Every structure is written in structure tokens, then in C-alpha cells.
Amino acid sequence: MATNCDSSxxxxxxxxxxxxxxxxxxxxTRDAARTAILSTRWRDVWSGQGxxxxxxxxxxCVERCEGDKSAAFVxxxxxxxxxxxxxxxxxxxxxxxxxxLQQSDLDRWLLFLSRNxxxxxxIFLNCxxxxxxxxxxxxxxxxxxxxxxxxxxxxxxxPIKACSIFSNxxxxxxxxxxxxxxxxxxxxTIPNLEKxxxxxxxxxxxxxxxxPKLETLSIIFSAQAIELRWFAFHLxxxxxxxxxxxFLQGEDFVLAALMFPIAINLQVIKLxxxxxxxxxxxxxxxxLLKNSPNLCExxxxxxxxxxxxxxxxxxxxxxxxxxxxxxxxxxLKIKRxxxxxxxxxxxxxxxxxxxxxxxxxIQGTDDLNPSMALKISRELLRFPRASPKAxxxxxxxxxxxxxxxxxxx
Length: 409
Hints:
12 helices, 3-stranded parallel sheet, alpha/beta, 409 residues, 19 strands
């Protein structure tokens, strides 16, 4: 049966509103906004879209503006929010340029979002003024809908003694955030937080929090040493710990490490940029292993600086440096493995102290020649193992091959 087709019909515009919204969510904000101009059928969909991303792609529009680009940027954000209808569930603001925002502009936008159902919020402001720091307004701290929050380049200062903040937040990430000394003495309860991450932050110990549901703690490239008291309090509760170039306050770091509590719930430890030859880092790593009786997975990315300094030597009792078995450890992964004497002894010790170990993956570095990689793999395979199920895999970084085997007892 013949049908008449209107060549001017717009099939896409006839799609259901929820399908249109999914399409717009997958477009850059700049392109999604254009649909409201090009078609009246898409205007309501754009104005009610629940996801707004302001990133480098969006800023290309601002770069073409004449005059004050910071003012043009602020006006564009104001216009988007003013015309928006319905909740904004996801909002990302990552300009990553030399644009200068005023605190009042940021406060106004965040107040709007806190009143319009924001659930996932990412604010990463790389300010061009070195001494200028943004403060998080109280409207976000008290927001009932937000569940995920990522903050970059903020000064965290809260003079208000609120008993509870972020009431429904489950994930919290800080990037380049400074925690003010004025936070000392104020304890904040975050009742539903499960994961908190600190990347290149300072004053972390000033952020006193009570987190009954916390499971994952990450401290990556801490800008300052952290108080043992603060660290020990959270170590007792968490299940996953991620550390990189981590130090505790105080000169007697050995004594501080010995004061670690028993981390009864800790199951996964990930150590990044671990310098095996650095006494402070290595002591903390060993003490974490000793005090984690239920550790199941250990993942280490070694630092380039792995060799012992002049005058240093391995302790005679190195093989017994961990005197108890790691009875629950079943997975061991080490990346950037150079095969130094210290690293080889470390692996040998873990193999001898882990009766339930099943998977051991060792990956070399990009500057190991094939003959050295083969020598390392052969030596690793000769180490005795407490677990009959332990399988050792050595991955050569350059050639991509793996060596798998069992020792001959």
C-alpha cells in the first residue's frame, strides 16, 4: 500500500520527551543548548534537562566573546540557570582557564542548585589568583539531596558548629583543598558517607569528622603530614585504604607507626609511589600490614626511587619483619617492579607469610631490558610459598609477556 511521505517531516523531533532528554545528556552542553535555538520542539527538553556540564568545550563560546571574558562567562551561566525548568540533578563546573569568578557568583549558583534537586556536584576551580581561595557556602553543606560531591581549589572553613552536614552524601572528593586551622575543635558528623578522598590537600587533620558508614579512605600526595590521632581514628573502621607519599606528624615516625590501631575491618590496601628505600614510607607500609589481620588484597605501585642509599643495608632479621601470617591475603599486585634487593626480599617475605595467597602479579618497568626481566622472573618463581595455590605471574612492561609457574619443592 502506497504511503505519502512528507520530506520535510522531522522524525527525531517526534521522539518521546524522555528519549530526547537521554540524547541531550550525551551531548556537550554547548551543542545541547543549540537545540533549543534550532527547534521549538526541543526547547522544553533543554530547559528541563537534569544534567549541565560547564567545561573547556563550553568555554570555547566564551573565548570568541569580545571584552571581559569573565563577565561573559558569568552571564552565560546565569542565563542557563535562569531559563532552566525542573531539577538539576548533575552539575559540573570545570572551566580550567584564567577566568576569575567572584565568590558571590559561585554562592548564587550553588544556592540555586541546592534548591533544585542537585544530586551530583563537581566544582573544580583552577583560580588564576594564587592567593584567592573559594569557600563552600553553607547551602551545600545543608543540602538534603546531594549524594556525590567533588571539590577542587577550595578553602574549607566553617565557623558554624553544625552537628551534621551533608546528610545524604555518600561520596566526597577533595582536590587541592585547604582545611583551615579554624576548624580545630569542631566535629562534623556525615551520617551516610561511604567514601572520602583527599588529593594534594593541606590541613587534613583539621577536618574532624564522624563517619559511621565510611568504607574507603584515600590520601594521595598529602601536602602536609597528618596527625596520627586523626588517621588512627578512621583506620579502625574502613575497609579500603589508598595512600600515596603519606607521612604522619612528628619526628619519631617509627613510634607513631607502632601506635597504629588494629584495623579489624581493613580488607584492601593500595599504596601508590611507594619508595621501598624510604625508611618512613616503608615503616608505615609494614606496620599497616602487621595491623590488618583481615587484609585480602594488597596493591603497590613502586616509586622510581627504590634503591638503598649509601650506608644503608637490609636488617638481618628482614625475613621475619612481619612475624605473624597474613592469613586472609589472597591477592598481591606490584607495579613498576625493578627487582632491587629490598623489593625481592619484600616479595619473598609475603610469599612465606601468606598461607591463602592465590594470585601474585608482578609488573616490571619500562626501562628494564629483556634479559634483566627474565632474570627477575626466574628468581621470583624460585621463592618458596606458604600457599600451595599461589600462582606468580611476572609481566614484562616492554614485551607484554607473562611468566607463570610454581616452585619446585
